[in-house]
């Protein structure tokens, strides 16, 4: 398997890759309200004169987007939205853009390494034999025919590969409530690690990959494909560790180490560990299920979590991911006594720093919560301290040029909603 290797030494915050998607689509319900290039929301957008569907904030954006939009432009007016909008439109656009081309000749260079569209990994779909998969495939195929036209449809094997490549490699871009999906060639070649050294960020539809730790020359550059202590997406939290629940499973270098020996699986007392690991996992699983089913998280009581954390003391290492996740669940998702929460959040921050480094992007959630709590407690000094920490962290993670607007807006919102109103 070919992965991206660092061609030189990088310091935290340095940009490793900035790249445009090979193809992107905008979420259908946003076609009318955002610029299909820079994603700006505005009431002054102008429609493409040809399809009269996509909108742009100006000529520069329209020209910039044309290299991708020209493929979909003739077909959008006749496009009827189906259930599989994301797959159908992205695969449809790829069919049109790659038509008649050798996939090996569609390439992108990253760090002196050349990667091709042909080399993008994809699911092999042995499930094609399964009835439910054939039904889903037929549905996509029919929708695609009506989108790009019968004459543009590739053979079944090519179509399966395209769907597989999109499923394996596409990214959502644009904030929490994403604006669309994109497929990148070079950026798809970064390997996953549960203890990564880089992170990704989007600026418009462009992807940026940045080092958040020191990366040596010839070191593999990795980022994490799923959140590590699951702040917004608790439901996925157990999927990334092979020793948790046996589901999914991760084969990154850290997870491949024998249980108990990596930073994230550290165990201090192997004799007492097993029942505590099981109890922790079942509580995390319960939290994941509750959040997935939109049950209130409060059903897991602070008291229960306290007892469990107490049991973990001296048994699981402080950087054991199950210990970190449990504490994160306790102080980020459930409300408690402010003074107690502040202490626990500070403990959580120190564990996370030990495990993933001081510029690990998920620390932002802890800092935001600390700003909020210190505001409520009227502790202006601590509030400003964590605001500084948040800005410093974000500057490394997403770049100084992107940090001010995003982070300041967030801090201002917290301060404005505070009962003391420090502003
Ligand atoms: Zn624009
Ligand atoms: Zn158009
Ligand atoms: Zn892993």
TrEMBL record:
Hydrolase is among the record's keywords: no
Domain MYND-type residue range list: 35-73
Gene3D superfamilies found in the cross-reference section: 1.10.220.160, 6.10.140.2220, SET domain
GO CC annotation: nucleus
Keyword Isomerase: no
InterPro entries: H3K4_H4K5_MeTrfase (IPR050869), SET_dom (IPR001214), SET_dom_sf (IPR046341), Znf_MYND (IPR002893)
Pfam families (alphabetical): SET, zf-MYND
Sorted UniProt keywords: Metal-binding, Zinc, Zinc-finger
Alphabetized SUPFAM superfamilies for the sequence: SET domain
UniProt-recorded Gene Ontology molecular function terms: N-methyltransferase activity; protein methyltransferase activity; S-adenosylmethionine-dependent methyltransferase activity; zinc ion binding
PANTHER family registered for this protein in UniProt: EG:BACR7C10.4 PROTEIN, HISTONE-LYSINE N-METHYLTRANSFERASE SMYD
Protein name: Histone-lysine N-methyltransferase SMYD3 like protein
């Amino acid at each position: 398997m070919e992965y991206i290797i660092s061609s030189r030494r990088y310091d935290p915050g340095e940009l490793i890759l900035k790249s445009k998607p090979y193809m992107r689509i905008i979420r259908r319900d946003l076609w009318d309200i955002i610029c299909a290039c820079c994603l700006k929301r505005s009431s002054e957008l102008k429609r493409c004169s040809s399809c009269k569907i996509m909108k742009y904030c100006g000529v520069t954006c329209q020209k910039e987007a044309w290299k991708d939009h020209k493929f979909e432009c003739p077909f959008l007016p006749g496009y009827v939205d189906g259930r599989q909008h994301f797959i159908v439109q992205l695969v449809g656009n790829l069919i049109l853009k790659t038509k008649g081309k050798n996939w090996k000749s569609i390439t992108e260079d990253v760090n002196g390494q050349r990667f091709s569209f042909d080399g993008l990994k994809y699911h092999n779909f042995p499930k094609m034999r399964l009835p439910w998969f054939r039904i889903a495939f037929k549905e996509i195929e029919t929708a695609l025919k009506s989108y790009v036209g019968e004459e543009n449809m590739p053979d079944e094997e090519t179509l399966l590969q395209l769907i597989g490549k999109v499923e394996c490699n596409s990214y959502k871009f644009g904030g929490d409530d994403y604006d669309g999906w994109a497929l990148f060639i070079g950026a798809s070649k970064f390997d996953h690690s549960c203890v990564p050294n880089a992170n990704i960020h989007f600026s418009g539809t462009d992807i940026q990959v940045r080092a958040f730790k020191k990366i040596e020359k010839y070191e593999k550059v990795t980022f994490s494909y799923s959140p590590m202590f699951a702040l917004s997406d608790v439901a996925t939290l157990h999927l990334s560790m092979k020793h948790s629940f046996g589901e999914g499973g991760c084969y990154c270098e850290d997870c491949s180490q024998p249980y108990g020996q990596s930073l994230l699986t550290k165990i201090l007392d192997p004799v007492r560990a097993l029942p505590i690991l099981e109890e922790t996992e079942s509580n995390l699983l319960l939290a994941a299920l509750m959040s997935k089913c939109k049950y209130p998280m409060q059903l897991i009581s602070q008291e229960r979590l306290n007892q469990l954390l107490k049991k973990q003391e001296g048994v699981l290492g402080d950087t054991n991911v199950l210990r970190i996740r449990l504490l994160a669940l306790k102080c980020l998702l459930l409300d408690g006594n402010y003074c107690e929460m502040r202490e626990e959040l500070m403990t959580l921050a120190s564990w996370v720093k030990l495990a993933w480094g001081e510029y690990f992007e998920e620390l932002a959630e802890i800092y935001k919560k600390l700003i909020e709590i210190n505001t409520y407690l009227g502790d202006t000094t601590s509030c400003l301290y964590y605001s500084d920490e948040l800005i410093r962290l974000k500057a490394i993670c997403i770049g100084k040029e992107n940090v001010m607007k995003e982070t300041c807006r967030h801090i201002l919102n917290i301060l404005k909603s505070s009962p003391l109103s420090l502003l």
